[in-house]
Design brief:
Distance between the termini: 26 Å
Largest sheet: 9 strands, mixed
Number of helices: 12
Structural class: alpha/beta
Helix content: 40-55%
Number of strands: 9
Length: 273
């Protein structure tokens, strides 16, 4: 029987927002961050790690429990990195290991650039970056089309286009089950914020390659074993080539930590040493 750790939920006021975050366990600090994925998606992995770590999870600004003073403010990787830096500092348990997934991986890159002193090991797992490719304008136009399609009210059409661009096969019945019919209003609000105010800034973030190569933090770019030929597979391989290294492989695909948190936790512990 898996022991459920005690979860302490808190909020922290930061410039322009009130952040919701959760803390589990005790031991060295590890932060699990997404964008737009919120704290709940990381809970099963956090439970496994909390046996010997202090685990920080958080809702990124503008999503679920992390409320913006101005709901029309865009969420950038730099802002989210500053939020994470403030959380780590507030807990006074750092420096931290950081695992960032998808948009949270871009947050992690921005954190390593801005506050490497707060990070021991940073794992940017499958950052969806346009700026590591030559056809940036084409990729940005695809994102603009996603944003416009969502704004038109065609939710299912938006997600069809999204998964096609990501090269992640998703059968139509599954798509309709996930994004059609009655849905949690909080999930819909989070989705709407992501398309309107977050996806562009995340995709168009340009890593400072020189700063990342020179960082005193240990920086790893993660990639799922099952992500072959997907957009993030290509972006990870392009970024690691530009940094002069290779991807660090993890079980599963883009959200392997959700699909099989136990296997992901084993690999994460290996990587963290």
């Amino acid at each position: 029987m898996t022991q459920i750790s005690s979860v302490a939920a808190h909020t922290l006021d930061v410039p322009g927002a009130r952040l919701y975050y959760e803390v589990r366990g005790s031991g060295p600090l590890i932060a699990l961050v997404g964008a737009p994925m919120a704290a709940a998606a990381f809970a099963p992995l956090a439970e496994l790690l909390a046996t010997d770590h202090t685990v920080l999870t958080t809702d990124p600004r503008g999503h679920h429990g992390s409320v913006l003073d101005d709901p029309a403010q865009d969420s950038t990787p730099q802002l989210r990195a500053d939020d994470l830096a403030r959380l780590i500092t507030h807990l006074d348990a750092g420096p931290a290991a950081v695992l960032g997934s998808s948009g949270g991986a871009v947050t992690t890159l921005a954190l390593v650039q801005a506050r490497p002193d707060l990070v021991t090991t940073a794992i940017a797992h499958e950052p969806p970056l346009h700026t590591v490719f030559d056809n940036i304008d084409e990729l940005n136009a695809d994102t603009d089309d996603l944003v416009a399609t969502y704004a038109s009210g065609d939710v299912l059409g938006t997600w069809r286009k999204f998964f096609a661009i990501a090269n992640i096969p998703l059968p139509e019945p599954v798509l309709e089950q996930m994004f059609g019919g009655d849905r949690d209003p909080a999930d819909v609000a989070s989705e709407a914020f992501w398309f309107a105010h977050e996806i562009r800034g995340t995709n168009t973030f340009a890593p400072d390659l020189a700063a990342l190569r020179a960082t005193p933090a240990r920086l790893l770019i993660g990639l799922g074993d099952d992500s072959a030929d997907q957009f993030c597979d290509r972006s990870v391989r392009a970024l690691t080539a530009q940094l002069g290294g290779y991807p660090t492989m993890f079980p599963g695909g883009h959200v392997g930590f959700v699909d099989d948190p136990a296997a992901f936790a084993v690999r994460l512990r290996e990587v963290l040493g």
